[in-house]
């Protein structure tokens, strides 16, 4: 009998082991951020909160944080709201017959490696033979052509645009699933009452996809504050530090400058930011609860 009582707990062991694999490195990183140490030296010098004090005085950190915040704001607008609009259009009665084709077109960039996409966009943004500048010249807007990735005023926006193009399809697919679960009677009743498509979108689709919006916002914000591939491959954080983000700054600090304790402090800040954003969203959306 005692053995039978223990059996259910044995099924929990794989999950507990997975949790240990997740949380042990997190706490180890926090512990390492309190030391000054190098990859190639076995010695660690305890510095307490000095790494954090230095970090909060570091102008590059604030530049990277600003770029991450910009990344997050643009991603919310284009990926979350834009993805919902795309999903609503694809689920419209007039478009639904062509929906499988459009879903494939929108979702295709999601399954392509971001490394490949970033390399493709280096050619797209090329100031001499890139498609973007060639198109601007073709339509008479040659004055707008510029080295998009080589200009400190446009580099971060060019990088962000790549992420939006690659990710909007995934968010749209999530919303399509959510929209398909909305009872069609709601739309039919609204249509009988004279509500046009825009009013049906804002008064039925948006409220009924609230839970999926929470998921989409979590994924989008987490991705915005942990983004690495796009800025690293496209610009390397340059020109200067104009397109630096926290992840690329962490990478350079750890593996180029070998300041592992300082890099651990940056990683801890990224963790705190993403946790606080997640908690705020859970409170704001009140997920899992009925309307109060």
From TrEMBL:
It is found in: Cell membrane. InterPro entries: ABC_transporter_permease, MetI-like, MetI-like_sf. CDD domains: TM_PBP2 (cd06261). The keyword Lipoprotein does not apply. It is a multi-pass membrane protein. The chain crosses the membrane at residues 9-31, 69-90, 102-125, 155-177, 214-234, 259-280. Coiled coil: none annotated. This is Raffinose/stachyose/melibiose transport system permease protein. It comes from Priestia endophytica DSM 13796.
């Amino acid at each position: 009998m005692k053995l039978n009582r223990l059996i259910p707990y044995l099924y929990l062991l794989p999950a507990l082991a997975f949790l240990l694999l997740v949380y042990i490195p997190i706490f180890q990183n926090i512990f390492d951020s309190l030391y000054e140490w190098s990859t190639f030296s076995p010695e660690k010098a305890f510095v307490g909160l000095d790494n954090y004090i230095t970090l909060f005085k570091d102008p590059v950190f604030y530049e990277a944080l600003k770029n991450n915040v910009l990344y997050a704001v643009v991603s919310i607008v284009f990926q979350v709201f834009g993805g919902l609009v795309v999903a609503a259009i694809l689920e419209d009665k007039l478009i639904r017959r062509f929906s499988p084709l459009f879903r494939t077109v929108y979702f295709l960039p999601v399954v392509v490696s971001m490394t490949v996409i970033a390399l493709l966009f280096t050619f797209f943004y090329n100031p001499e033979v890139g498609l973007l500048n060639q198109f601007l010249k073709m339509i008479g807007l040659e004055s707008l052509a510029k080295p998009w990735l080589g200009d400190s005023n446009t580099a971060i926006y060019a990088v962000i645009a790549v992420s939006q193009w690659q990710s909007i399809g995934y968010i749209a697919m999530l919303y399509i699933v959510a929209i398909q679960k909305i009872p069609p009677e709601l739309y039919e009743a609204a249509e009988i009452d004279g509500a046009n498509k825009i009013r049906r979108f804002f008064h039925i689709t948006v409220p009924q996809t609230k839970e999926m919006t929470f998921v989409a916002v979590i994924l989008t914000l987490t991705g915005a504050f942990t983004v690495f591939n796009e800025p690293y491959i496209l610009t390397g954080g340059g020109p200067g530090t104009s397109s630096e983000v926290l992840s690329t700054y962490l990478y350079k600090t750890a593996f180029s400058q070998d300041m592992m304790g300082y890099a651990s402090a940056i990683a801890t800040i990224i963790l705190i930011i993403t946790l606080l954003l997640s908690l705020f969203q859970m409170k704001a959306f009140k997920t899992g609860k009925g309307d109060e």
